[in-house]
Write a structure and sequence with these properties.
Elements: H1 2-14, E1 20-22, H2 30-37, E2 48-50, E3 58-60, E4 71-73, E5 81-83, E6 94-96, E7 119-121, E8 143-145, E9 168-170, E10 192-194, E11 212-214, E12 233-235, E13 244-246, E14 258-262, E15 269-271, E16 285-289, H3 301-306, E17 309-311, E18 317-318, H4 324-327, H5 333-337, E19 341-343, H6 365-394, H7 419-436
Parallel strand pairs: 1-2, 2-4, 3-5, 4-6, 6-7, 7-8, 8-9, 9-10, 10-11, 11-12, 12-14, 13-15, 14-16, 16-17, 18-19
């Protein structure tokens, strides 16, 4: 089965300009590559070797001759280990070992023999520890991805302390409950940071050089002041606990150009308190898509008026008098065309721009007065009846007085006296009757 593959490879390598060998998806095992292929094809001039989506369980540089190698793609294999041991120094600049079975990377893998490495992708493995010795040799590394590893709290505070040139760091879905204030302190050139899909409940300390930040799908319930003056793009998509977004918290983000908020189903309010400061002066795109917004605060007017691109689609808008200010603004005509009402029922699925301003009414207090009044009266009557019944049933029967009109009044009382006292009372009564006779 190797005849056709090797013939194609030989034709590719025969041209002087071709220095890429792509063997992806060939179902190769390490023996097929190191024993069979190398005996028939010279790899000494190969600069880009693509071995993705095969059956490699390890890769050993001593078994091959790749002096010109600059890019090595071993992603989507079954790697449990890889080594760079048999040359003093490689020219390797890009290493992709993502989607493998790596549990730990020791000093024989990422070492001082590949000091020119600029891009390192370790995502979707089984790494649980990231320490300072693992990445200490990469002075020129610009891109690092540790995404989708079960790291949890296994990232040491000084794990990135030697990565002075790092510009892109992907820590997405590493199950980290928090990121310490020391972790990013030394990353003075970092421009893009992805912390999405982690159970963090607060925003960590960020480098001042940061340009893009992704906090999507985290446990943040509110956004406090973010101290990243150079930030240009912020993503807050699929926030499970975010209910309110106060734009005043972004007053330090003078360079922010794009704010994305999508799929945050509990986000009911986006508002801004009155302030003399100019909030988000350079904002170019504001997207609050598929959330739970029903209305917009009038104080948002300055931000909405100067932002060229607005996207507030797929929210359950309540088109009442609180939305009149949006319709009345010429600058937001396009914006109002994107707002589709959900309530009141007569405007269901009607665009805000199609509703005359005078029809946007709010339910007044007078319309609610009489129903509330009658409800209070009913509650009061029921309360009086219950109290009266309670006291009537509680009073003993022996304390009831029975009086009849034009007749002698007979009073029944509970009497607890001795028999001798009763005899004396009767005797006195009889004597009185005799005297009257």
């Amino acid at each position: 089965m190797w005849c056709g593959t090797i013939t194609v490879i030989a034709l590719i390598l025969s041209t002087a300009s071709a220095k890429t060998l792509d063997l992806s998806g060939k179902n190769l095992k390490k023996e097929d590559f190191f024993l069979n292929l190398q005996s028939q094809v010279s790899l000494s001039e190969i600069t880009d070797l693509i071995l993705r989506n095969n059956q490699f369980d390890s890769f050993l540089d001593c078994s091959t001759n790749l002096p010109s190698l600059k890019t090595l793609d071993l992603s989507h294999n079954h790697l449990q280990r890889f080594f760079f041991l048999c040359r003093e120094e490689y020219n390797l600049q890009v290493l992709n070992v993502s989607h493998n079975q790596l549990m730990y990377i020791d000093e024989y893998a990422l070492n001082d023999r590949i000091p020119k490495l600029q891009i390192l992708d370790l995502s979707s493995n089984k790494l649980s520890i990231v320490n300072e010795t693992m990445l200490e040799h990469f002075k020129v590394l610009e891109y690092l991805s540790l995404a989708s590893n079960p790291v949890y709290d296994g990232i040491h505070d000084k794990a990135f302390c030697n990565l002075k040139a790092l510009r892109y760091l992907d820590l997405r879905n590493v199950s980290a409950p928090q990121f310490t204030s020391e972790l990013f302190k030394t990353l003075t050139n970092l421009s893009t940071l992805d912390l999405s899909s982690n159970p963090i409940s607060s925003v960590p300390s960020l480098p001042e050089s940061l340009v893009e930040l992704d906090l999507s799908n985290t446990q943040l319930s509110e956004i406090h002041k973010i101290d990243a003056p150079g930030l240009k793009e912020l993503k807050l998509n699929y926030m499970q606990n975010l209910k309110e977004l106060l734009l005043n918290e972004f007053e330090n983000l003078h360079n922010l150009e794009t704010l994305h908020v999508a799929g945050s189903k509990k986000l009911v309010h986006i508002k801004m308190s009155p302030t003399d400061k100019v909030i988000l002066p350079r904002l170019q795109r504001l997207s609050v898509h598929d959330c739970a917004l029903k209305t917009l605060d009038y104080n948002l007017l300055p931000v909405l008026k100067r932002t060229p691109i607005l996207n507030f689609e797929s929210n359950p808008w309540n088109c009442d008098c609180k939305m009149q200010w949006i319709v009345s603004l010429n600058a937001t005509k396009t914006f109002s065309r994107d707002i589709k009402c959900r309530t009141p029922p007569r405007y269901f699925k009607v665009y805000l721009s199609q509703i005359p301003k005078y029809e946007l009414e709010c339910e007044t207090k007078s319309s609610l007065f009489y129903p509330i009044l009658w409800a209070c009266v009913l509650i009061l009557v029921v309360a009086i009846v219950l109290v009266a019944g309670f006291f009537l049933l509680k009073r003993p029967i022996g304390h009831w007085d029975i009086r009849r009109k034009n007749r002698d009044t007979v009073t029944y009382k509970n009497v607890d006296e001795s028999s001798n006292d009763m005899v004396r009372i009767l005797a006195v009564g009889e004597t009185g009757d005799r005297n009257e006779e």
